[in-house]
Structures are given as C-alpha cells and as structure tokens.
Design goal:
343 residues; alpha/beta; eight-stranded mixed β-sheet; 11 helices
C-alpha cells in the first residue's frame, strides 16, 4: 500500500538540527520558517529517515543544508520534477519542496503547474518575498506591477502572478497562505499540509531584509495585521478585525466586508469557510482578495480530496504486470516481429 508509514518513536526538534551555520541574512524570514518546520516534523509521526527536502536555486533553496534529513539541492526551477521522481520511485517517503517565487514561477513555472496538476503527494513551501534575493534584487513574477527594482528602474510593466490563483488554475487540491512573522499560524498550516494527500502548496509571505524589506508590512505590521488579515478555519465563520467584529458576507453573489452589529448583520449572516468544497468559486474569491478592499486570506483556503498520482501509477503498474504476457527480458526480446534465420 502506498504511503503507509510505520509507527516510530517520535523524533524531537533537536533531531533535525544540523552542526553547520544557517547562512541566511539576519532578519530573513527563512529563519522562522526553518524553526517552525523543525517543530512540525516530529508531530507528523514520520521517521526522520523517511523525510526528504528538495530545493532549486535561490535563498530559499539552501533549506536542505539547514535541516538534518535527506536532501537534494537541485538546479534552478527543477526542484519539482526531481521531487516528483523521488516520490514516484519511493512513495513511502515524505517529500518536501522548498522554493521561491522566482525559482518556481519563472524558470520553474511549467514544472510547478504540472506537479500540482498531477497531484503528486508532496508538500511545497513557496517563499514569496516578491523579489530575486540571491541574485541581488531583480523583480520576480510576483513583484507588484510598477515596482522599482534593479531590473525595473522605471517600474515593472508586468502583471504579477498570484500563487493561489495559479494553483487553482492548475487544478490544485490544497492551497494555504501564511506569514513568516506568525509561528503559530505557520505551524497549523504546515501540519495541515503534511496531512493532506496530494500536492499541498503553502505560500509564505516572507521578508527579504536586504532587497525587499517590509514588502508585506501592510499585511503583517503589528498595527494593521488584525484588520488586514483574515485567518480561515474550515467550518467556522469568516471573522476578522482587532475587535473581532468584521466579517465576510455574500450579497447578491458578491463577497463583501461587513461589520457585525451594523445594518442588522449578525455572525450567522457571515460565510462559513468550507475548505473542502469541490466547487472552488469561493476559493478563487479568497485567494484574489487584496487590500484595501478586502483583508488578505490566511490559513488553509483549499483542501479537497482527489486521486493521488503515485497511488494511481502504482495500481497501473501492478495491473500491467498481472496482465502482460511479457514476464522477462527474453519474453520482450522474442515478442513482436522477430527475425529468424533459415540458414
């Protein structure tokens, strides 16, 4: 049976620590992500020796060096196909992909969408700092239009990708969003991603202290985060705000921000989040929400059941082995049109 992990003695965070230094800049959001992942992994109940981290190129892609598991530092944009090959060849491994907005959505864009489309059972952590950090500040596919960077001194003229929208368009079964400044939120989201069967995509709004410092400040700033973020939980009403008095409500097939207690609005009028709804209409609305009209959606936005690629492939191979008349290499060589000498 695919994905059948044997019970083991739980590891601890200390088991995932490495001896080498973590060479991200001081203030980089990667430090918080790394620490949280080390907290989550022991709770998955998976043997440390069955965990693999795969990365591409970029600051995010140093991750495999900083965690004591199996790891593969691949080429630019190629983490997804390599991780896919690892998972397909050994489905009992827990495979994590760590990538950035440039690594996965520019040179690796095709691999990103096809991994999601196939629904291979891997966990993808997308560091989104809206800039190329390792290569010193060029604009990326998620850099907001009009931004001034080293490669757009007069402002970018390209429309930015929304990772959640791209994931939905690729028929993704799991999408979540979190911020590097909230370890509790990250832990909940990473745990849900690890539990999901299929490709889980987690967008992490991450700070690059050198080339895009405070790029997410309008979302993550202490003075605004309660009113500018909404943390979604399956089965619960969509409430947010510093006073927990704001929410999202459907009016004539349009999602609107309302205030509880005004115009007769009660908590019962708010939308109840259904992350498991196969009809992704609301999921699309949620990943597209932007300031200032809406708060930015956080937490698990979509988590639906679907067939998993490697499980389907395993069944397909087993069926082929059972039905084929070719059992050995000799059978293969002697099958079809075979030349026979009459001499």
């Amino acid at each position: 049976m695919v994905q059948n992990f044997e019970p083991v003695v739980l590891s601890t965070k200390e088991d995932y620590k490495t001896d080498g230094a973590v060479k991200w800049c001081a203030g980089c959001g990667g430090h918080s992500v790394l620490s949280t992942v080390k907290n989550v992994l022991p709770e998955t109940g998976i043997d440390k020796d069955k965990v693999v981290f795969v990365s591409g190129i970029g600051c995010s892609s140093r991750f495999p060096y900083y965690i004591n598991t199996y790891g593969f530092h691949s080429m630019h944009g190629r983490a997804n196909p390599i991780a896919s090959g690892i998972k397909i060849s050994n489905p009992n491994l827990s495979v994590w992909i760590v990538t950035g907005d440039g690594d996965s959505m520019a040179i690796g864009g095709n691999h990103f969408i096809h991994t999601i489309r196939r629904n291979i059972n891997v966990n993808l952590l997308l560091f989104n700092n809206k800039i190329y950090g390792l290569t010193k500040g060029q604009y990326s596919p998620t850099t907001p239009k009009g931004s001034v960077t080293k490669t757009s001194p007069e402002g970018t003229i390209e429309n930015a990708f929304k990772p959640g929208e791209l994931t939905m368009g690729a028929q993704g079964t799991f999408f979540a969003r979190t911020v590097d400044s909230d370890p509790k939120m990250m832990k909940k989201v990473y745990a849900a991603a690890a539990e999901h069967k299929g490709t889980s995509v987690v967008e992490i709004l991450l700070n690059c202290v050198i080339f895009a410092n405070q790029v997410h400040k309008d979302i993550t700033g202490r003075d605004v985060r309660d009113d500018h973020q909404i943390f979604l939980e399956h089965g619960k009403p969509m409430i947010f705000g510093k006073e927990r008095n704001k929410g999202l409500m459907m009016k004539c097939d349009t999602m609107e921000v309302v205030t509880i207690g005004e115009n007769g609005v009660t908590e019962d009028d708010l939308i109840v989040h259904n992350a498991q709804d196969p009809d992704d209409t609301n999921h699309y609305r949620l990943v597209r929400m932007e300031l200032p009209e809406f708060p930015v959606a956080m937490g698990v936005i979509r988590a639906i059941d679907s067939t998993v690629y490697e499980s389907e492939m395993f069944d397909l191979v087993q069926h082929a082995k059972k039905e084929t008349k070719i059992k050995t290499m000799d059978d293969l060589l002697k099958s079809g049109n075979v030349f026979e000498s009459k001499g």
